Amino acid sequence: MKIRRASLADTEILHELVNKYAGRGLMLPRPRSMLYENIRDFIVVETEKGIVGAGALHIMWKDLAEIRALAVREDMFKKGVGRKIVNCCLKEAEELGIPKVFTLTYQPGFFQKMGFVVVDKENMPQKVWKECIDCPKFPNCDEICMEYRL
């Protein structure tokens, strides 16, 4: 397994991977334009099977970043792909001096094993909710907010 920064050539695969889960209501849909605009946030895990997982570290403010759009191909579940992506994001946040990383998720057990704790999303800064306005579940979000302190 090789982990690397996403490239523009990866955009179609990212779009397919992320929106497969979005179609099931498990994450926000990501239009191609958003993926292109934020490609520098994304990392991918690649094997001989191609890209098998992706995720992004999105910087929100000087002291806050979000792990978002974490998606792993179903045939690669429980093989350490998601863990690699999250660890890479946390390492980058630490290198940048960002003390707190959060995620909005339907998979709290996975993130709990990674050291994240559940927090009240009402206590998050309003900047966090910028994309939520476009979500079909807004304002009745049922995602769980979790954070990791570096």
Defining traits:
about 25% helix; alpha+beta; 4 helices; about 150 residues; Aminopeptidase
Task: Describe the structure in brief.
With 150 residues, the chain is of the alpha+beta class. Helices cover 27% and strands 30% of the residues.
Can you offer a commentary on this structure?
This protein is of the alpha+beta class. It has helices at residues 11-22, 32-37, 81-96, 108-113, and strands spanning 2-5, 42-47, 50-61, 64-72, 100-105, 117-118, 144-149. Strands 1-2-3-4-5-7-6 form a seven-stranded mixed beta sheet. The longest helix is centred in the middle third of the chain and has 16 residues, at 81-96.
Topology (SSEs and partners):
Layout lengths: L1 E4 L5 H12 L9 H6 L4 E6 L2 E12 L2 E9 L8 H16 L3 E6 L2 H6 L3 E2 L25 E6 L1
Parallel strand pairs: 4-5
Antiparallel strand pairs: 1-2, 2-3, 3-4, 5-7, 6-7
Domain count: the total is 1
> How much is the radius of gyration in Å?
14 Å
Helix/strand-derived category reads alpha+beta
User: Quick one: CATH superfamily?
Assistant: Gcn5-related N-acetyltransferase (GNAT)
Compressed to H and E, one letter per element, the order equals EHHEEEHEHEE
Which residues sit in consecutive blocks of at least 5 with pLDDT less than 50?
A: none
Distance between the termini: 26 Å
Label the CATH architecture: 3-Layer(aba) Sandwich
The general outline is globular
Number of strands: 7
The CATH topology corresponds to: Aminopeptidase
The side-by-side strand order for the widest beta sheet comes to: 1-2-3-4-5-7-6
Kindly report the average pLDDT value: 91
**H/I helix tally:** 4
| Share in β-strands | 25-35%
